[in-house]
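Please go through the sequence and fold tokens given here and tell me how the chain folds. Record follows.
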Amino acid sequence: MSHLPWMDKLMQNFQFKTSYLAHIVTIGIATFLIYSNTYAVPFYFDDITSIINSAQTYQGDLSDIYNQFGNRFVAYASFQLNYKLDGLNLWGFHLTNIIVHLLASLSVYLLALQLFIITSRIQKQDPINKDIQYIFAFITALLFAVHPLQIQAVAYIVQRTTALAALFYISTMVSYIQFRTSKSALIKVLMIVLTLLFLLLAFYTKQNTYTLPGALVLIEFIFIYQLSERNYKDLLKPGIFFVVFCVLGLIYVLLFKQTIITLLFAGSRETPDFSRIVYFETQLGVLALYLKLYLLNIGQQFEYVYTLEDGKLINSLGYILSYIALIGFAFWQIKRNAILAFAIIFYFLAHIIESAVIPISDIVFEHRTYLPHLGLSLIVAFLL
């Protein structure tokens, strides 16, 4: 029988569509089954102040939402939609949360698929094993969807802000990668528009998305730069120039624009109850707790009582050295295992806003691990 290239292409497209559809359906069924018992979970804590006590605001228009909730406008506009559709009916709020979580998980699937394909192209693995790339994406997304540490971002109604922010964050990365790798001018234009749109939606959903530009730089540095077969040594001179420019800019601000520093420090703290260094050292242990709960899911709590450190860093030296070693290992793996390198660095990057030097009165909350779980899910799928 003669070889028919068009038949091969047809079968590959069929395989893609069937695999993709099967994975989406499986992730969807798993998500709805797992969270099927959350519809009656009552309003808790911030739900009272942000939803029940704000009912009068939800009766107004979008400008009222923006005036009251500002940079979380998108998330609270979704609460307003729930309220206008069915009042304070719990079922509608919870159903929306589950749908947002499912969409975020599917965006993880697309991102994992993209990263696998790019990595295969970097390593010149041709033809790409399509079965493996689908399985990799499926495992990553399924882990993200069903891991017990995601419960709080789904069942705690007001933490839709977390899941919705992650959806827009990951969607921004997906559209950006498509923009950078597509050869079609039309698709490039469409993708850059979507990138900017998702970026804006993310910024107006929750503040932890402010690390998104850093994530795009990370994608550019680890994947796109290698894909274009450029040498990292070429970055040395512009890197030095950038560092010098930043240092000079900092010196200028410290000498002549001290009010900027004052405003920055005042705006980047949620509580004055403890110093930045105390909060930072405490979060070193909190990150270890999050990792332990991911690997050994025992002892989850809705609210944690966690002891503050003294801020001298001596007690946390082991954590510091371990995290530095992990990040150093990630940079060492950039050329060898790009996905692993990205996943490790992204995990720490995604924690920077809430688990670093911006003091927040609630020391530990599981919903803060929602977006960073993308990194952990990539790591587990990579190892499997």
Remarks:
- The chain has a mean pLDDT of 88.
- The CA atoms of residues 21 and 372 lie 26 Å apart.
- The two ends are 38 Å apart (CA to CA).
- Residues 90-122 form the longest helix (33 residues).
